[in-house]
Amino acid sequence: MLVGVPKEIKNHEYRVGLTPSSVRDLIKNGHEVIVQKDAGKAIDFTNEQYLKVGASIVNSASDIFSNAKMIVKVKEPQPLECKMLNEGQILFTYLHLAPDPKQAELLIRSGSTCIAYETVTDETGGLPLLAPMSEVAGRMSVQAGACHLEKIRGGRGVLLGGIPGVAPARVVVIGGGVVGDNAALIAVGMGADVTIIERSVQRLRYLDAKYQGKARCIISNDETIEDYVTQADLVIGAVLIPGAKAPKLITRELVGKMHLGSVLVDVAIDQGGCFETSKPTTHEKPTYLIDDVIHYCVANMPGGVARTSTIALNNATLPYVIKLANNPIESLVINQNLQNGLNVHKGTVTHKAVADALNHEYIPPLEALKI
Q: CATH assignment of 131-299?
């Protein structure tokens, strides 16, 4: 199969779908790879490195989309890219379609087969292709929050870990999954006063045993969220319902009760955000103010550490890329975990949560694959 890797065009997105090492493995498995010129240059994956492992370099994205049977990306395709997709072509990338009906409609019209990293599952029901970026985003969320708590950036002027004689910052993490756990790990390591709010008692038991009193583990409900958020210096939104829009757990009214100069970091923004006041931002302009509360809602947060993120992502995605390249339809039919990643196929929506969020007819994957 001919696999194509375009250069990412989203604002300040420097990651790349395949590293030279991944390209080498694909070629070893009998496939051809074309890479857009300078696709990985910003993170020191040079054209020469791709050529050395056997890839071909092409000048434009149109060369990729016109010729490749499968497109491997990182971020969701932008409208220009969606319009270049062809019927029968495979797109393998993050999609986050639930809060993005415009992208969904363009993908449906394209007739292509669109597989979303974020809904591929593993044998335990986990999300193996979302996990590495969740780990990165969770850890970065604390860095971003600590930075914007500084007075020169409009924050309260609070040092996350405090010093002897001065209390540390109060950090509240809403959601105890991969993002929340990694956020708590860094916040605890920096000496903050950390509270994790999570709805699963089983998950709370795991986190409580892990942190051994270094972080409070509190059940999630309206009362506990209000109690802890109104006293927080930094709140990290880390909730996820696979494929669906994120629930709005912090209301506009509650934001108005927070401390002036406190910081909200919404890691769930790719799925629409978990704060009512959230709207997507970019690395170029990462924050905005509502009621003097700083909102950090960068939709491609791991792009800020693009080299680390690219390598971590490829570690997880490469086995799936090879399976799809070897035999795409058969892999989707026989592999339930990969099948769960199928969001759009030949004009149909094939993921139930996505279809529900978009108010679109749902066609089960196996039924759609027969089309």
A: 3.40.50.720
